[in-house]
């Protein structure tokens, strides 16, 4: 079942300007224009006479789309010249990069070739679709608490919030990113060939807002979302009725058990040395093991509370024992790495922990609370 539907309607492209174009003309100023290749459809902008390296067009063209399934669009900046028009720069990216920001003027990188290695300036574009199709809608409230989701990098960024929300509905609240499936294959498009990209997700679960990043190539990562409503079919958006019937009904949510209260060990009073059978040495205390709930990722990490015996009192009968210190042992949640933060509950309170350097999913570490 495809979650991306063909475009139907009128696609309007606005060519605003370009900056820092390389020079292809040896004498005089070059006259740039933009040619667009979108599947078998081809259109072009007007010529910016003497625009040279920083042309301004302010021009708009339209492309009629009728059940049009092409996903990649190519922009070629050329120099209007006698005879053959020289190619100045090029950009190839998914049409969804433009449709994710409809009505906005956004700047994109230009390259010398489609290999996207050597940069050749920047171009400012705007797009509007008078119709429907493409990625599932992003402007409705998420069924699964997904607040933000983007795929790409600083140059080309695509909003995939609606796509992931629908994918979670199909998976009964679960999305699995397999290690042998790059993100570009998972989504069915590559924001920018030959460049690093990352999926960033911000979602709410158990009253806690979580953030996670998944790279283009990654280890197997499973995300479990918390459902906000029983109505899944209202999120089908662009799916046909036949496709919507393939979505499994979500079973009734199970009640979430509150974490058991953590009982901190009581400090041991220190007797004067004359009455201390251990000769003034601290009395060893065994760790008290409890279990808490980690709402950030729905796991049940081990939490151990360690009681610390008061310092050696010596011969001072008036010694006052310091407060008991508590250390909690946690397990790094799946998909997280050094420097990332997550929330956990301890003794009825919520804390935030940062994954230490060199620690990864499944490894244990301690924090003091």
Explain what this protein looks like in three dimensions:
The protein is elongated. The two termini are 48 Å apart. The chain contains 4 helices and 20 strands. It is mainly beta. A hairpin with a 2-residue loop joins strand 18 (341-346) and strand 19 (349-354).
Number of helices: 4
Indicate the radius of gyration in whole angstroms.
29 Å
Series of H and E elements: EEEEEEHEEEEHEHEEEHEEEEEE
The level of helicity is: under 10%
N-to-C CA distance: 48 Å
Low-confidence stretches: 231-250, 265-315
Task: Quote the average pLDDT.
Answer: 80
Shape: elongated
Beta strand %: 35-45%
| Strands in their spatial order, largest beta sheet | 4-1-8-7
Give the structural class: mainly beta
By DSSP, the count of extended strands is 20
